[in-house]
Amino acid sequence: MSNRRDRSPARELLKIGQLARRAGVARGTIQHYVREGLLPRPVKTHRNMALYDAACVDRIRLIKDLQRQRFLPLSVIRRLVAGKGSGAQAKAALEVQQAALGTLGAPDQAASIGAEDAARAFGLPRALVAKLERLGFVSARREKDGPKLFSGPDVEVLAAIGHLKRLGITERAGFRPNDLLMYRKALEGLLALEVETFLRVVIGKKGPDEAAKLARAGIDGATSLLVALRKKLINDMLLRTARTDALDPLLGRSHAA
Fold first, then answer.
1. Which domains does the chain show, CATH number per domain?
2. Has this prediction a pTM greater than 0.70?
3. Cα-flanking dihedrals φ and ψ of residue 12, to 5°?
4. Short-list 97, 84, 180, CA closest to 138
5. What is the pLDDT of residue 1?
């Protein structure tokens, strides 16, 4: 009588170089994904030899697709690819994300503007507009054979930076375009946490329509909260500073005594 275990197909195991070639990534990428918990640890067969399950090829491709096409952070992707049914989880996440994007609506083409016109409209040097694009603050897009245009949130960002310039936040005053990166970096980290929280709430629990409704509420509500919370934190900081300034003379007199 043959053993049932003998009839099950053996898993294909790959060396890291083989896995890298099949998945189309560098060895370092695989090692990074293992450290981040995105891939299972390989089976150690020798001190200098480790083998990976061939199923990792599809998982790596899925991870890269979620990064490149959907711009999901690794912290979110880790949850999506963990355990069984990761493909279904990822598919649900993409459907939810598509529904959320649909709430933003298409950019208003009538409000689209080229780089030269944007520079004139917002009082920005043309070189500064180009630098802001290189730094990733804005992105001009070309429709078919037409010129590259800024639209939607990109126009709002340029308008906001133009407003800062009118208020005196300029290179002549000592501020550099690169100084604005602190806002982008802080918001990217916050956005990653927001996406992770949103997906935790909706994946497998809410349909696309309800997800879209929650996404719109989250976008509008969180933006208002950010503005209000920033004002509060500034106010709290100024109050602490005022209290410290008021105490300094008292502390000086106590030391003198």
1. 10-102 (1.10.1660.10), 109-206 (1.10.1660.10)
2. no
3. -85, 130
4. 180
5. 46
